[in-house]
Amino acid sequence: MRRPVAVRVVGPLQWILYPALVAVAATIVLATPAQLFGLTLPEPVVPMVLAFAWPLIRPSMTAPAVLFALGLFLDLFWNGPLGMWALCLMGVYGVLLLSRNLLAGHEGLIRFAWYVACTLGAFLFAYVIVTVRAGNPPAILSLIGQIVPTLLLYPVADWMLERFDDGDIRFR
Amino acid sequence: MAFRDGPFENLKVPLVWTAAVVVVVSIVAAGLLLVSDRKAVDGGSSYGAVRGAADTVTGPVSGILAAPVRWVGAVTDYVGGYFFAVSENRKLKAELAELQPWRDQAIALKNVNARYEALLGLRTEPPVPMITARAISDARGPFNRAKLLDVGTRRGVRIGNPVINEHGLVGRVTGATGGVSRMVLLTDVASRTPVLVDRTDARALLTGDGSDNPRLEFVRGAGSVQPGDRILSSGDGGGLPRGIPIGVAAKGIDGSWRVKLFSDRGAVDYVRVLLFQDFGQLVDPNALNAPPLAGLGTAPEPSLEQAAAIADVAARRQAAARAQAERTRQAQASQAATAGPSVQRGPAPRAAPDQSTPETPPGGPSPAPGGAA
């Protein structure tokens, strides 16, 4: 008699809620005002990984709602204009949702290029918003100092896609 | 009839469409939030209550989640202190030897300055009370430079309070709840601070741009800033006390004047919040509400020195008043002589030269004591 095999169900809890909580925790930890060997901690926009991975894994109503909440969290936590990061992240999510058929099957460099383009677009949008609101453009070097750590998070997005994208054609 | 029994029983909406609806609604909501979020006059936000609630929640959570990072930071500091103790000791000894004459000079200047203030009757600013706080979390990005402090309104912190560390001005409080408060740094892109150049007393505006060195804008006067000039808070507008050290002027690579902040000389983890609101704080409100001349009944008897100083000042004022009256009379006489020369034939009276001299403070005008060494 064959023993029953436990089937591991991958639901929204696994691919939406837990990653969102990890993103919140990582943002809080990286905001610690501590210096390690004379250097401050980097400050990437961690939810950018989720904004890139979630629409490619599968369309969902929960994911954009959680992403919107994550954007508001960033604005409140970093004391930014309320709605700025929510708008930027939702913009990335919306673009990828529309382009997911185009991106299906692509891996490696093409996918990374999309990640770079989406990240740069979101930061450009945020840059314009802050410039208009403050009447004062932020420093470019400082901007690069946040873009680069965000781009370095791409392996996490790639891992999420490999882990949760089940290739179900019903979602294509 | 239930919905599932109707004509829409077999209707299936693609998931992409439903997700797109959520995206559109979220984008609209985010846009509305962005448009409606305005800065208040006191530096706070129109969503101050929401931000305060979020800070109240994230403050303790940050303290717990960030504890391991702090421990690692403390370990690295310990290791660094162990290996660099000798060089640090040499540097501190040299610094101490250099600062010793400055300390003596500062004590002497403080004494002289206090005497001048007393003699001239200057209304000096009272000492501002301050409380120590610890930074819980830190935003270091290009769009926001802010810190969350572990003190709030229960300790007297209010929106607008300046924040300093042991080196100089760090920023200002823009949001305060019971237990935590939000401080915006001088380097934040929305930060504007009125400053002065210590050497020339020229005014300028310190404008943050998300970098470590904020810009110096609207500098008044040609050549009023040089590399190495000390920049202090000017106190213009009443938001900050005058004279808080901020940094040193330097030319940026883009040709603009920038300020190397003193506060960056060390980690901005422990800070002090100045419980300073505006110039209204400098006057005792009860004294303003007291009836006229109420202080005369309670004032102590002046000492002999004070009585002599008072008599001296009164005599000088009388002499000045007499000289002024004499000058007025002369001016009237000369006007009358000009209007009708046939009537006014008499010689114009001369003013006593000793009475027309301007009033000088006791001790006479002396050069600034000490001076920069």
UniProtKB/TrEMBL annotation, chain A:
Transmembrane segments: 12-30, 61-78, 84-103, 112-134, 140-161
UniProt entry tagged with the keyword Transmembrane helix: yes
Protein name: Rod shape-determining protein MreD
Keywords assigned by UniProt, alphabetized: Membrane, Transmembrane, Transmembrane helix
TrEMBL record, chain B:
Superkingdom classification of source: Bacteria
Compositional bias annotation for Pro residues: 359-373
Bilayer-spanning residue ranges: 15-35
Keywords associated with the record: Cell shape, Membrane, Transmembrane, Transmembrane helix
GO biological process: regulation of cell shape
A Pfam short name: MreC
Region annotated Disordered, chain positions: 316-373
Record-level GO cellular component terms: plasma membrane
Transcription regulation among keywords: no
Low complexity bias spans: 330-339
InterPro entries: Cell/Rod_1 (IPR042177), Cell/Rod_MreC_2 (IPR042175), MreC (IPR007221), MreC_beta-barrel_core (IPR055342)
Rod shape-determining protein MreC beta-barrel core domain location: 136-273
Protein family according to the UniProt entry: Belongs to the MreC family.
PANTHER family: CELL SHAPE-DETERMINING PROTEIN MREC
Designated name of the protein: Cell shape-determining protein MreC
Source organism of the structure: Brevundimonas aurantiaca
